[in-house]
Design a protein that fits this description.
binds NADP nicotinamide-adenine-dinucleotide phosphate, Rossmann fold, 282 residues, single chain, six-stranded parallel β-sheet, alpha/beta, 12 helices
Length: 282
């Protein structure tokens, strides 16, 4: 087990980066968490300070924004790996998504880099319902999704973070791809039922044509680039290609992945779906 390392976390304030950094720090591992808003800053679109940032870094966890499937990701990951190799970084763990052609190109850039690697290839995050673009829907009691989506084995990203940390700490796991999913496939209707049961509040599922979904996102103020990305991801990833589970959590951790009902229970208990009330009665 390796514990004396300095690990760069790209996207340290994000959903998975924050979890990975907290776990590494609890294990006594030094980290440098970066993104555009940190000091020093890291920006995927500006490589001018990457060599300086990587000086003295042993390993790195990479989350790409907005998504590893966008066309510019491959070039940025390739450039990062070249810079990391020159800085003698020994190991890079890359977060990726299942069934995404663009992401596969970025993964290839890391595999070809000559640096020890791990790819954590994830299904859709359960936390999209509580920490991402579906939170508002859940809080409003109506989960709106494009019609005709297949089921998905949503991954609890607490499991995903455990897999990333295991990849850093266990050299025997290096140079492997872990395809991580939850233990069963659920439709969005089943997710809504699970969340309703956990919150003890109704959550209606409304399926709409893609064009209506896109208009609704725009009306909510979701930026255009994210609307376009979500349209592509829903069209590509919910066509049935990912409607199966994968054993990555068990392969890396030797235990089962967390079920969606447990994710919903703990998320409700933590208050993530508490509705905001203006002026509670005395
Ligand atoms: N959501 C899913 O269901 C899902 C499923 C599979 C895979 N993934 C993958 O997950 C990755 C995202 O990971 P995540 O969800 O942990 O991250 P995240 O929560 O989306 O955010 C990570 C951080 O990225 C930073 N950021 C934004 N633009 C940046 C830039 N140009 N340069 C550097 N940092 C930037 C932001 O901080 P600042 O504002 O401070 O820069 C943000 O806090 C994506 O690559 C996606 O492909 C997601």
């Amino acid at each position: 087990m390796i514990t004396d390392r300095n690990i760069l976390i790209v996207g340290a304030k994000g959903k998975t980066g924050s979890r990975v950094e907290a776990r590494l720090n609890r294990a006594g591992i030094t980290t440098l968490g970066v993104s555009r808003s940190t000091e020093p800053a890291f920006d995927w679109t500006n490589s001018s300070n990457w060599a300086d940032l990587l000086d003295g870094v042993d390993a790195a966890y990479l989350t790409y924004h907005p998504d590893l499937s966008v066309p510019q990701a491959e070039g940025h990951i390739r450039l990062f790996c070249e810079t990391a190799e020159q800085a003698r970084v020994q190991h890079v763990v890359l977060l990726s998504g299942r069934g995404e052609e663009g992401a596969a190109q970025a993964e290839k850039a890391l595999r070809e880099s000559g640096i020890a690697w791990n790819i954590v290839q994830a299904s859709w995050f359960a936390q999209n319902f509580s920490e991402n673009f579906m939170l508002d829907s859940v809080l409003n009691g109506e989960l709106v999704v494009p019609a005709g989506t297949s089921s998905e084995p949503f991954i609890d990203i607490d499991d995903l973070a455990d897999v990333v940390v295991a990849a850093f700490m266990e050299p025997g796991l290096h140079n492997r791809l872990f395809e991580v999913t939850g233990p069963r496939c659920l439709s969005f209707a089943e997710c809504a039922e699970e969340i309703a049961a956990a919150t003890n509040r109704p959550l209606r599922l409304t399926e709409v044509p893609m064009a209506h979904y896109v208009s609704a996102l725009t009306a909510q103020g979701v930026p255009d680039y994210l609307v376009d990305l979500l349209q592509t991801l829903f069209a590509d990833l919910f066509d049935g290609r990912n409607a199966h589970t994968a054993p990555g959590v068990r392969e890396a951790l030797g235990r089962n992945a967390t079920d969606f009902s447990e994710y919903a229970r703990k998320t409700a208990a933590a208050g993530a779906w508490n509705t905001v009330t203006s002026g509670a009665p005395a």
